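Worked example 2:
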Amino acid sequence: MLNQMFKRLKTSTQISLKFTLFSAGILLLISLMMNLFFFSFWYFGLRKPIHPVPLNKNQKYTFSSNENFQHRELRFPINSKEASLLLDEEQFFQIIDIDDYYLYFVKEGDEVRVRNVTQQMELQILLFWISLVVVVGGTAISYLISLFFVKTALKKLNALNKALENIDIDRLDCKIEITGHPQDEINRVSQKFNQALVKIESQTRGLKDFVRNASHELKTPLMAMSSLLSLARKSKDYENTLEQIKIEIKRMDSLLDTLLLITQLEEKTQLRREKTELTRTIRSLIEQFQLQYQEKKLTLELDLPEYLEKEINPQGRNCIITNLIGNAFKFVDQEGKIKISLSSNAFQVWNSWSHISLEQREKIRERFWQAEASHSDRKSFWLGLYLAKLFADKQGFKLECESWTASGVSFLLTFS
């Protein structure tokens, strides 16, 4: 019950209470040790008699006699009325409270030795109350001081919390201000939040681009089919129109398959791998694209091993290699150059591309965006590079736009 109530308190209150309980425990321990030390100091000294002379039987002694009893000890026969009175009283460590005195007594043979310890006991009681006041007051002061320091220490955390409250999906560029030493614990948390916001902002932009471009790709075949139907109604050439519509339907079906594949890949944590030979696949693709783009009169520079086997997902292999090589042939300049290299650590594709704009270079590097010109190519989608990167990430590989200059662009696939 108490544990649940404690957990409902604010963190600052919990820390203050913990420190307060710790401080109260220390004060209580010190007070207890002081009281025990003082009590032991005077109590164990009482065992030594200060007047070993036997009691004068002709003299009458009373406990209330200041003259005879205030600063000395008395001895009474064990069968005397005084001894009986002492032995019948309630005692604490052989100390009793009688006639406004605190008396210490002990039986020794046929006598009872009595000593006045009023002064010591009054000092002991005073010390006890002082200790109690110190413990209670110190505990209260400790709580207030600890709460002050905790709230002061949490000011940065409160500022961080306030900054996070102002962040939403449309305001991810809002950075958390960091002051003080960069290695400060809260400053390091702020830095991590800023880094996370940069990644989230980048991914959000990529998602928006993804949705926008995917919508565009879906609209393209729909608009084409609408135009073809309007044209067929006017020209009455339904047979040719149906063939064109079939092509658009296949294109849309391929696009939907790609979108579905992306969704499935994003839900998986890792892809199955198997040993696959890469050199033969790359050479085969290069020959296909050479025939397809032979009018560009390209120069190829290949650096491929005779045989290289890697553990890779077969579908991912086809997607990544096809996209990288296909884009190189598609966007290379007329009479341009393409360089393709493969090693046990990486696969790299470079192509000359003098007309790439600064905006396109930045987008290619950051979000694997494909140039707008690709929309005119009916055989591919801008989603290709996104899908290739997704395949690479799910296999622990790294696919990135390694470099871009005014003369060309280079993509690098690094194997794990």
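The mean pLDDT is 76. The radius of gyration is 46 Å.
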